[in-house]
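hey
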């Protein structure tokens, strides 16, 4: 295994810290969405991560993919809005709104997709949205009713005494309904009782806020959303609708609410006047609209000419100038062309949710329900600016995240990996199809993990507890995330993959200055795309991990005077994800390679090496003298390695044997595969969990006088040591 790294390690790279900071700030921006009076914080948590993303792009420390099915309609809508500058009624405001609204919301979408790109990111966003909206809902209800003294028959936030400003009555339901659907979905997935209780409280809170607004469009939207969400579970659907019906009957028992939902209240609504007034405007500019700027629509002196054209019996005595309808708003501002582009975005998003549902039915139906509910609400309220627009683009971002995850397991187009883009030149994003072989490997990986027994014990030490947590997290990632990009997972990068660490420069320089660099090591360190490893900043054809492990092999061959290719047997204790095994084979090894590791790591090793077409074999094949790679977590298999074979073999343990308990490592070093080896490549740290590793290895090699040892501290990694040996 590689020496574990974390963000807080000394020497952790600045780009990694910046990426973490940007991710946190984007999450905070999403969290602030429902809260009024937080404009300064929202601006800071938007522009700071945007600047951070640009810095990462300029440093070329993170690769950004802009390729989604929504990219083209987004670009066309922006282009059409910009073209409107030539015929806009208010050009300055059109330019301002294009930048401060449309392009800003695009940036929000791409920030969320880039920094929350996985299933874990999707779940994290859902929790952020549910928690923030629940907090807002509770605060709004408490403040509006008990504190301000409004009766519960009054509409939440609809009062001359107080409104929630940018989260007014008509707007807040965009956030609360989205949160309600996400909370319902999280409840279906969550198994922990305490978390389920919190989610239940959150769901009740956002549903109560939604009902108390008495917004007709919101009630229609939430009913349709619930129906879509529970399409596959009729029993649960009927129970939810029954509860919803009781809630509505209790809430609307008052005369005020009854009047609002009566036929007269609906037919006499001011929206009919608004629709007729705006359709008068559309008749004048049906194709191009008045321009993207919307300030002119708030001017009664300008709008009065259209108001006067509405038949007097339909006129709204209050002369409301807001369209209260996203589609009508777009039609007036961008014309028929703009409306068609918006509808194209809506249809493409629907298609993406359906594609995502093939891999992930639960989350796919969740986003289908949320998107359907939002588009229904948009018939009754503006959604092109403010909090509703943020919710609109958060929906699209989360749909995109699910869609991208789905592509890794279906025969649909997926973006070429970072390695392809960075190492094969041209700077163009390549596209390829996931093969049947890769799909089969993913299925086999998950089947193997699902067959493992539960981890139901706690560690006896801090290290064991940490590794048990890692095992649980690795299982979860394998089952829920994209295995084709497992080298992006924190649980892997934190324990098996050395990235852009400062000491890699020293190791790369050592390899490049060798006389056999061109003949041997230049090819050895060229990275494979499997797993989507992050390229090394100083040599993008490789990764920090590949360089680090090549350095191990090179130093061993130099000190021991033996080529790795000359051994008929290699036994590796703790093989990470199989990278060092891959290197040994690139160096020319063609014998039996045995990796002993934890069960989850063994499954991942088989997957990685299988992606590379490496010769994997079973224990029965090895016992018959077969060559190939045997990955096992069965100690009996390791113990069965024949002493005669071991006496010709190489034993490898890089920061693995030194991270086990003393009793277990004593058991391991006594096995024939280890005790009888002809050569040793070991790396370890001075101390681990109170164990003096240097003392242990000094005592151990003292028991093996027939081995010629080379023991030294790794100069560029103080406190870490190499122990090489050969007969």
């Amino acid at each position: 295994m590689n020496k574990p790294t974390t963000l807080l390690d000394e020497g952790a790279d600045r780009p990694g810290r910046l990426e973490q900071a940007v991710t946190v700030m984007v999450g905070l921006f999403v969290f602030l969405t429902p809260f009024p009076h937080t404009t300064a914080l929202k601006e800071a948590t938007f522009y700071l991560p945007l600047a951070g993303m640009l810095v990462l792009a300029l440093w070329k420390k993170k690769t950004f993919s802009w390729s989604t099915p929504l990219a083209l309609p987004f670009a066309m809508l922006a282009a059409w809005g910009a073209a409107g500058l030539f015929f806009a009624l208010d050009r300055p405001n059109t330019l301002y709104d294009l930048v401060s609204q449309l392009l800003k919301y695009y940036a929000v979408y791409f920030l969320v997709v880039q920094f929350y790109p996985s299933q874990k990111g999707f779940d994290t966003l859902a929790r952020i949205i549910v928690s923030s909206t629940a907090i807002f809902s509770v605060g709004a209800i408490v403040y509006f009713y008990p504190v301000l003294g409004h009766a519960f028959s009054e509409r939440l936030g609809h009062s001359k005494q107080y409104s929630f400003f940018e989260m007014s009555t008509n707007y807040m339901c965009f956030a609360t309904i989205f949160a309600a659907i996400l909370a319902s979905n999280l409840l279906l997935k969550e198994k922990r009782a305490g978390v389920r209780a919190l989610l239940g409280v959150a769901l009740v809170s956002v549903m109560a806020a939604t009902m108390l607004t008495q917004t007709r469009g919101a009630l229609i939207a939430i009913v349709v959303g619930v129906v879509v969400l529970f399409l596959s579970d009729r029993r649960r659907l009927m129970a939810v609708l029954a509860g919803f019906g009781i809630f509505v009957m209790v809430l609307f028992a008052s005369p005020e609410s009854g009047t609002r939902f009566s036929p007269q209240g609906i037919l006499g609504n001011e929206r009919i006047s608004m629709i007729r007034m705006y359709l008068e405007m559309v008749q004048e500019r049906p194709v191009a609209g008045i321009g993207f700027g919307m300030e002119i629509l708030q001017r009664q002196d300008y709008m009065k000419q259209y108001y006067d054209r509405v038949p007097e019996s339909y006129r709204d005595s209050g002369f409301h100038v807001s369209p209260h309808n996203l589609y009508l708003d777009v039609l007036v501002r961008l014309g028929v062309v703009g409306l068609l582009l918006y509808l194209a975005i809506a249809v493409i998003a629907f298609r993406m949710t359906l594609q995502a549902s093939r891999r992930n039915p639960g989350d796919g139906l969740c986003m289908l329900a949320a998107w359907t509910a939002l588009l229904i609400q948009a018939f009754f309220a503006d959604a092109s600016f403010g909090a509703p627009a943020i919710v609109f683009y958060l929906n699209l971002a989360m749909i995109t995240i699910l869609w991208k995850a789905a592509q890794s397991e279906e025969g649909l187009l997926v973006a070429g990996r970072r390695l392809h883009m960075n190492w094969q030149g041209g700077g163009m994003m390549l596209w390829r199809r996931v093969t049947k072989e890769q799909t089969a490997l993913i299925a086999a990986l998950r089947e193997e993990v699902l067959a493992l027994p539960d981890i139901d014990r706690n560690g006896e030490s801090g290290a064991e507890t940490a590794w048990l947590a890692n095992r649980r997290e690795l299982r979860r990632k394998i089952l829920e995330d994209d295995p084709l990009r497992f080298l992006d997972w924190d649980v892997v990068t934190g324990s098996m993959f050395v990235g852009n660490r400062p000491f890699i420069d020293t190791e790369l320089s050592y390899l490049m200055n060798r006389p056999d660099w061109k003949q041997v090591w230049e090819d050895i360190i060229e990275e494979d795309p499997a797993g989507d490893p992050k390229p090394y900043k100083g040599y993008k054809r490789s990764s920090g991990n590949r360089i680090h492990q090549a350095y191990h092999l090179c130093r061993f061959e130099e000190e021991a005077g033996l080529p790795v290719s000359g051994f008929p047997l290699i036994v590796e204790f703790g093989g990470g994800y199989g990278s060092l095994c891959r290197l040994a084979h690139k160096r020319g090894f063609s014998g039996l390679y045995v990796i002993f590791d934890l069960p989850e790591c063994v499954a991942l090793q088989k997957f990685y090496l299988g992606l590379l077409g490496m010769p994997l074999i079973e224990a029965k094949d090895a016992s018959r003298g077969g060559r190939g790679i045997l990955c096992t977590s069965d100690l009996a298999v390791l113990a069965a390695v024949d002493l005669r074979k071991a006496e010709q073999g190489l034993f490898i343990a890089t920061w693995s044997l030194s991270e086990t308990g003393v009793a277990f490592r004593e058991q391991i070093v006594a096995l024939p595969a280890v005790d009888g080896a002809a050569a040793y490549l070991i790396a370890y740290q001075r101390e681990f969990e109170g164990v003096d590793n240097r003392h242990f290895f000094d005592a151990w090699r003292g028991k093996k006088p027939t081995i010629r040892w080379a023991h030294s501290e790794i100069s560029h990694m103080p406190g870490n040591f190499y122990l090489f040996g050969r007969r």
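The first helix runs from residue 14 to 32. Residues 69-109+268-407 form one domain.
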